[in-house]
Amino acid sequence: MGKVYIINGSPKIKKDNNSQYFIDEFLKLLEDTNLQIEQTIISRGYYEDIYPKLMESDIIIFTAPLYVDSIPSHLLSFMIGLERYIKQSRASEDISTKVYAIFNCGFFEGYQNRIALDIMRNFCHKVGFTWRFGIGIGAGEFMGPSKNIPLKSKGKEDTFNALLELKKDIVNNSLDIKNNIYTSPKMPRFIFQLAGNIGWIKQAKSNRVSIRGIYAKPYVKKL
């Protein structure tokens, strides 16, 4: 049916990152397809062996966490290198690759990923890829660590449905224009904030940082 290459752009190269969680959940949805799927997690370093595989793929799916309303710097470096490779190999003359993206963020609202997805869309237009759409997932720090809660559960079902739409778009070889999909967990926002604050305090204590130290502003100039 087609070759799919999934890029995990998380700076956390171990497989316990949130991006890998969404990849694993998506792969479960693809188990009943005939797609040839390959995936890799990139880190700072040599990428040249990956670029040819991408150019041979029918579909590329980029996944990454949001970093300062943008894409992690090492993933941007990877994309710059890919653009250079395409130009040098003149592969842009017959590119038919479709691109999707799955970004998650620590903010509660999934639409906070919109700028990063716009960057990915503009990149595709520049190098000749066909941009399909992206999924922006909010509360990534809840979604990933709560693996014991099924993605089809009520609290996470919007993200499950978004991944299902991605699967349908790939399997049906859709060409109609689709907008990005943004999801947030079905819970009161204040509960997410409360859990986040507890998590920050716990993490600070484990690193010998006091609660007062969390609010420290060492680089603020005193008037």
Fold and architecture overview:
The protein folds into 2 domains: 3-187, Flavodoxin domain (Rossmann fold), CATH 3.40.50.360; 188-223, no CATH class. It has 223 residues and is an alpha/beta fold. Helices cover 40% and strands 17% of the residues.
Give the neighbour order of strands across the main sheet: 2-1-3-4-5-6
Give the overall shape, derived from the CA principal axes. globular
Q: Per DSSP, what share of the residues sits in E-state strands of 2 or more residues?
A: 15-25%
Structural class: alpha/beta
Which value, in Å, is the CA radius of gyration? 19 Å
Strand tally = 6
The DSSP helix count reads: 8
Indicate the CATH topology of the largest domain. Rossmann fold
Name the CATH superfamily assignment of the largest domain. Flavodoxin domain
Mean pLDDT over all positions: 88
CATH architecture of the largest domain: 3-Layer(aba) Sandwich
**Which percent range fits the helix content?**
25-40%
Unreliable spans are none
Distance between the termini: 65 Å
List descriptors.
Rossmann fold; alpha/beta; 2 domains; single chain
How do the strands and helices of this protein lay out in sequence?
Elements: E1 3-8, H1 18-29, E2 36-41, H2 51-55, E3 59-65, H3 73-89, E4 98-104, H4 114-127, E5 130-137, H5 140-143, H6 157-171, E6 181-183, H7 189-206, H8 211-214
Parallel strand pairs: 1-2, 1-3, 3-4, 4-5, 5-6
Q: Would you kindly provide a brief summary of this structure?
A:
Keywords: Flavoprotein, FMN. The chain is an alpha/beta fold.
